[in-house]
Amino acid sequence: xxxxLFLLSELLRRDLAARYGGSFAGPLWxxxxxxxxxxxxxxxxxxxxxxxxxxxxRGGYVExxxxxxxxxxxxxxxxxxxxxxxxxxxxxxKKLRFPIHLLxxxxxxxxxxxxxxxxxxxTGFLLVTGRGSVNVGLLVAAFxxxxxxxxxxxxxxxxxxxxxxxxxxxxxxxxxxxxxxxPIIYPESMIPGFVARFLAFNPLRDLLALFRAALFGAPxxxxxxxxxxxxxxxxxxFVGARLFRRCRPSFADLL
Length: 255
Description:
Layout: H1 2-20, H2 29-48, H3 61-83, H4 90-93, H5 101-129, H6 136-163, H7 167-180, H8 193-196, H9 204-216, H10 223-254
Helix pairs in contact: 1-5, 2-3, 2-5, 3-5, 3-6, 3-7, 3-9, 5-6, 6-9, 6-10
């Protein structure tokens, strides 16, 4: 177990170093890229379209947007990188004793590290300005739920991408659909009734609600619903792990 944790930490360090190594700004890109994306969305939706936060929200619309946009960027990055985590590392996959699943775990972990950096800066801003109501325990619970949400899909997509290389190219439009069907740039209260029922099939709704509750004291999603999603995601994670294990013997032949 200790050896695997050490190997995971080394893969994580290598992943982050390879992503920013050799560039002028280095690790600062972990902040600059999300900052530009968040600033652009904030300008468009807060100052051009003039969106408003939901009634009773402690901060302004920009804070509401960032509390949802930062977790979404972590989810999107984790899914995209996890999908190609096995197919991009053929030289390691062909080593018989190498624990291949750590490649996927490292890809997800690197995305969450970058998200955590952005979330730390945002949390620091809220603490300094007093604009939020930060609950560290809830913030940890939100990250734990996010890990649970990502585990199963990451393993499934990493496995399938070895067999169907077009999968990585098909993901961006599906992620775009997920982005606009989740209450990231708009409050849940704005969703028409005939569409709102479909939110029951979107766990991102509760993930975003957890982060907003942790940062601004927004209403928590119903405990029963979060618990039900947790059970479903545990099952998905178990299925993903089994699928990954079943596909593992074929990886070396296909890469």
